[in-house]
Amino acid sequence: MGNGKCMAGLAAAIMICNLTGCGTAADTDRQTVEEEEKFLPETVGTYEAEEAELIGNVHRESNASGYSGEGYATGFEEDTDMCVFHVEISEAGFYDLNFYSASSDYKENYVSVDGDSMGTFVTETKEFGVSALSRVYLEAGEHEVSVAKYWGWIDLDKLDVVTAAPIDPAIYQVSAKLCNENATDQTKRLMSYLCDNYGTKILSGQYCDTGAFGKEFQVVKKVTGKTPAVLGLDFIEYSPSRVENGSTSKATEFAIQHWENGGIVTFCWHWNAPSKYLTGQWYSGFYKEYTNIDLAKIMNGEDEEGYDLLMKDIDAIAEQLLILQDAGVPVLWRPLHEAAGGWFWWGDAGADAYKKLYICLYEKLTDEYGLNNLIWVWNGQDADWYPGDEYVDIIGEDIYPGERVYTSQINKYMEAVNYTNPPKMVVLSENGCVFDPDLAVRDGAMWGFWCTWGSEFVAKNTSIFSYSDQYTEEDALKRFYENEAVITLDDIPDLGDYPIREE
Ligand code: CA
Fold first, then answer.
1. Ligand 1 geometric centre to CA of 50 (Å)
2. d(Cα 460, Cα 471) in Å, to the nearest integer?
3. Can you name the CATH fold of 185-497?
4. 56: CA distance to ligand 1 center in Å?
5. How many CB atoms lie within 10 A of CB 353?
6. What is the pLDDT of residues 328-351, one digit of tens each?
7. How far, in Å, from the CA of 161 to the mean position of ligand 1?
8. Of 50, 62, 217, 487, which one is least surrounded by beta carbons within 10 A?
């Protein structure tokens, strides 16, 4: 494996197999295939979109061909436009929601069940084709399944509700072997600890620019009585084009402090593009719209100066990572995040340029700088953007499902699990509202950790430290942090002598 196209093919094969109940694509594993063949999916309901409740601009049409029933629903143009299916379930359990839809191009649209956001389903064929939102738990009784505009521009034919295949427990048996064979013992100890807990426990996490004694950590502590296990930090202010404008940061010191207090640290890097490429406000220079950088040109050798500038930027971050290595701090390192979203400059030139930069970054930090304290968290968020198993230890997804949405996001979790074979550990590397750990355990969405973003997601924008319940209510946050499946700072053993897994 190891190239994105292969991975995409595999993910698609698994998806089709799940839909038809033939198990995973691992034909070589006869036992797995035989076991999964025992499960036969059953369609418990078919609902035509043209007969569903159509809201706003959504209306019935029958001009296109290939639909079932009397036509299809179309006209998803405004955020309030919806198609609501009234679904009747006789037996509580997990169901795949199989949506049949068509569009001229790739589209994603929102699905909610009884008002709770469940994720999105994909439309990518001009003919009516099926896309599943997997493993939705439905109690017996009537439910409202709503499709609402995200990208819009789809024709929606029908919804089949189908019993979902059971989760193969093997997806939680992930390897602790790091892709960098020279990883330090301390880094291996951390990965071993994460793997030992994966599948049964979930680490709590919180971004806080001002460290574990800063605002976000303190408001979480005030509400829950607990300190998050994982501190999320950002190398943003070490980017040379910000330093040139007077930025300073103590993120590295905060990381050392949290590690020395028994915690775990993760870093992202809102990489502010080199000054040469900034076209607007310098402090927004990680967004593509404030730069004119062409990563494809740089990675193809058509902009050598640009390449040198990027390498100098990497040098600046390597310096900080070396400080962490010298202090014995292993880092859950999540560079070049959310690339497939296309809003950051490193995702603007497509998957190939991004993968080249990711691999270049990996090789420079690992081989040139000898950084052996990094656990590489890939957060490209699309199988086509996967750089290869030899560069990735953990897969991260970032999900902001709205306000006070506590669903487990099992659909996205399973999608990420299926990026690789065998599966890697999957974490919720950024979130807005926090999911309910009870729902995650029920659904099997065993995110290795969550890491809530800072500011309004937990703290009010005031000088006094005050909790913001806009995204996660106080009672809910307290309940989540007290959940027995959740690891907080005081649950972490001494990682300094944690046994390294033999594999
Ligand atoms: Ca139809």
1. 6
2. 11
3. TIM Barrel (3.20.20)
4. 19
5. 20
6. 999 999 999 999 999 999 999 999
7. 14
8. 62
